[in-house]
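User: I'm curious whether this sequence folds into something compact or stays loose and floppy. Could you predict its structure so I can see for myself?
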Amino acid sequence: MNSEMSSKSGVAGWLDRVFHLSENNTSVKREFLAGLTTFVAMAYILFVNPSVLGDAGMDKGAVFTATALSAILGCLLMGFLANYPIAIAPGLGDNAFFTYSVVLAMGIPWQKAMAGVFIASVLFTLVSFFKIREIIIDAIPQDLKYAMAAGIGIFIAFVGLQGGGLIVADKSSLVSIGSFTVPTTWLTIFGVFFIGILMAKKVPGSIFYGLVATTLLGLATGLIKMPTHIISTAPSMKPTFGVGLEHLSVLSSPQMWAVVLIFFLVAFFDTAGTLIGLAQQAGIMKDGKMPRIGRALMADSLSMLGGAVMGTTPTAAYVESSAGIAIGGKTGLTAVVTGILFGFSMIFSPLLTVVTSQVTAPALIVVGVLMVSALRDIQWDKFEVALPAFLVVIGMPLTYNISYGIAFGFLTYPIMMVAAGRRKDINPIMWILFLLFILLLYVLNILH
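Assistant: Here's the prediction. I'll summarize afterward.
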């Protein structure tokens, strides 16, 4: 019995040393709960990614496995290299651009488009290795960093409201309130109130308990179907593995280099904005900078490169990590737990069908409330700062894209600062970003 206790304390001690749990005032139990919550909040990507890329003609089974493996790789790298509670998996915006803009609209076969993803991944890794990404992120003004955090909060709350059926598309006004005659919508409403009451009572793990309670209610009422079976083997990646490497000759086309540029820039700023927002929420930022950001960016880059080889679109830091951070996740152990659970998901994938969008929606809505608190730190009394910050915040949900929101702010900031007579306060890198975003929007306009 003593040896068993010693073994347990030895494992706990090792985890404490590797992830610095004591220094960050956290515990193995809290980090595990945070990792589990993050996984539950983002597990939908295992089914959404194959569905989206399947529209491009890719094998859905192979994409399912590639999605899981690239998420495992990204989460483990983020956990062990950077010690951040931030999960990585294939990004939703990138897969939609790949399928609907590149493959279907431009008529480029998915095999050749995947070659473009691979080249963008290589460039991504190089700029991370030479710390170019780190320099750029450090140059972003603090007010715009706060705006990114708040904008992402509103964005994921909007995603939650939409996924839960509380907001629906409308031809005349773009969006409108959902129908309360739809039974599943009440699952979301129940979840929001359940989590909200627990949060008000300061119950640790409120969001996770809300997810569990909402799932159980859905199963009990028949609104969520019980899985037909529990275990299934992971599909083969043979139809997608290494396909991009076999079609690198397509890069002789200027059209494909435009595609590479867009993949590169969108992935760059999606992840940069998300990392800053999540770090702000987790209290990681010190003097406006992220410690170990170079390692975090390298973890992101390597997972993107691995995903491109396996056969999936670019990976990204996930805003759903905010659900785990809200529960108390503070170290890389949270990300590692999430990665391990992605591994288990390859075997127990049928069980993930009970985690519907109505189950995860309440978590996203509540986390949006937590993240939007960054608005209080923006200098609203200085219009040259207020306008760019506002455009970042409002641009993300209204364009349904984190990068576009960042673009609006970055294109406005230098102009406003010059108008206010504060030219000297502009970091030269911000002018470079200004030109890059003009180029990005110009290329997007041509392709559309």
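Summary: Residues 254-282 form the longest helix (29 residues). Strands lie at 88-90, 167-170, 174-177, 315-317.
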